[in-house]
Amino acid sequence: MEDDFKRLSEVGSPEEKALIAAARAYQPPDLHQQRLFVALGVGVSGGLAAASVAGSAQATGLFAKLGATLSGLSAAGKVLVVVGVAAVGGTSAYAVKHELDSQRATPSVVVRPTIARNGQVSSGLPANLVPVAGLDVSPVSSTAVPSPAATQKIATPSPIPSFKDELGLIQAAQIKFQQGDPTATLALLERHQRMFAHPKLALEAQSLRIRALDAAGQKLAAQSEARAFVTRYPRSLLAQPLLTIAHFPKAQSTPSTGPAASPTPLKAPQ
Amino acid sequence: MIKSWPASDVPSGGRAAPENHEQALGQSVALNDQVRLRRAVEQHFGFVGRLLRHSGVFEDLDDALQQVFITLMAKLQHVQPGKERAFLAGCAVHIAARSRRARGVRSQRFESEFPELPQKGPDPEERMQSREELSQLDLVLLSMDESLRTVFLLFEVEEFTMAEIAESLAIAPGTVASRIRRAREIIQESLAHGR
Question: Which residues of A touch B188 (CB under 8 A)?
């Protein structure tokens, strides 16, 4: 409509324009977006996405090599190893096994390939960084003379797993659940429980775990946990998919918070 | 039993036909819908967050954002492709209004109360300025009637067309134009008083 009458014949004081600019500049926190993806059960972040679907087809370069190696590992193992590599940014020539669940401090390590007198190039990997079994951990080119540029820093994942790690793990569990693999889902959630002493996505994990238990045939356990969850968080959005599992007797019905009760998502426990 | 989403929360773009959230959350979303939903989050997250925030949703922003997009998920089949933005705007307006009613507070905020603003940044002066601007913005916007504020935000900040606003809020295009003019007058008056 004639560009809305030239945006309604734009006039406006500089102050008004500054105000509008300030309003436009506001961006909601990224963390909210990540939590939203988890709540909706869609979307997996970046490189982790490609890899967590079992090192799937689109992986290239190191990821492709890694994918082949991972085929022998358990689902949980795959995802966690890939978390470690994803943290390197996909640029390192090395794959480092990372025990994410140890939570122990591991300083970043600068790896300098060294040349022995016989011309052999050694990887320079310290003994405590164990290469993934079966992976070729030799430098990219064993004949090239190492230059300062060849010095590669292995960005070992941060000593304490970050929220991004947690998010990746929960999303991987969601994918497994959607793929109809409750056993792998439970394994990932168990790993989540071990890795994160103070999880931000505890309720998301718990809700998913109950659904996975139900899908895995552990009906009684699922029902009892679902009832506890729904009773404790009756207004949570996360409780809603659990209602059918909780299977409350008609008379008891869902714990109500009154007629105005509407689904309200919960904040992550801090 | 938890109620399904109130039908009144469905903006006109949403072709009504209420479904319930239990189903929406309990069932796994079909792959096409997942892609569509993800894209909607990627494209419209910022705009929905801004609209909620400038409509007075502060501490509950995270929750409100989830409610808006979960409503979209529940109604996705009834939202025409390409109309997601209008649908989300309508939802956000309803949810912001409900959030404010629930709090019962007509936000009086002070400079120190901006948890969403980064505490660290390259330039403290710049940070201070953006805090001041946001603070002033809140004062001006929240002193306005809700119906005017919403139209102003959609038109001036989010650059919706008048037809999009009319569709999102289920009002006549003429009403949109008059509300924009009225909102501008109020803002100019507020700014003049503040000088």
Answer: 12-13, 16
Residue A128 burial (CB count, 10 A): 8
A246 token code pair: 């909780």
Task: Compute the distance between CA of residue A96 and CA of residue A88 in angstroms, rounded to an integer.
Answer: 10
Q: What is the torsion angle, in degrees rounded to the nearest 10, for the CA atoms of residue A60, residue A66, residue A69 and residue A71?
A: -70
Following CA atoms A259, A263, A264, A266 in sequence, which dihedral angle do they give, to the nearest 10 degrees?
120
| Cβ-nearest to A28 among B45, B67, B137 | B45
Residues of A in contact with B28 (CB under 8 A): 41, 177-178
Give A196-212 pLDDT, tens digit per residue.
888 888 888 898 999 99
Cβ under 8 Å to A: B residues 119-158: 130, 133-134, 136-137, 140-141, 153, 155-157
Buried b (16+ CB within 10 A) or exposed e, A210-226: bbbbbbeebeeebbebb
Could you report how far apart the first and last alpha carbons of chain B are, in Å? 53
Find which of A24-28, A171-175, A213-217 is predicted with most confidence, using mean pLDDT.
A213-217
Percent of chain B with pLDDT over 90: 25
Residues 6+ apart with CB under 8 A from A145: A115
Q: A22 vs B134: CB contact, 8 Å cut-off? A: yes
> Which helix (DSSP H) or strand (DSSP E) does residue A121 occupy?
strand A121-122
A140 has a chain B CB within 8 A of its CB = no
Instruction: Quote the pLDDT of residue B94.
Output: 92
Helix extents (H) in B27-161: 31-54, 61-75, 84-103, 124-142, 146-152
CA-to-CA distance for B98 and B164, rounded, in angstroms?
22
How far is it between the farthest Cα atoms of chain A? 83
Best of A201, A240, A242, A247 to substitute, by most chain B Cβ atoms within 10 angstroms, is A240
A199 with A38: CB under 8 angstroms? no
pLDDT greater than 50 at residue A243: yes
**What type of residue sits at position B95?**
I
Other C-beta atoms within 10 Å of B37: how many?
A: 23
Alpha-carbon distance of B159 to A19, in angstroms, equals 15
List CB contacts (< 8 A) between A244 and chain B: 22, 26
Residue closest to A66 by CA, chosen among A38, A85, A47: A85
Mean pLDDT of A32-38: 83
Burial B118-148 (b: 16+ CB within 10 A, else e): eeeeeeeeebeebbebbbbbbebbbebeeeb
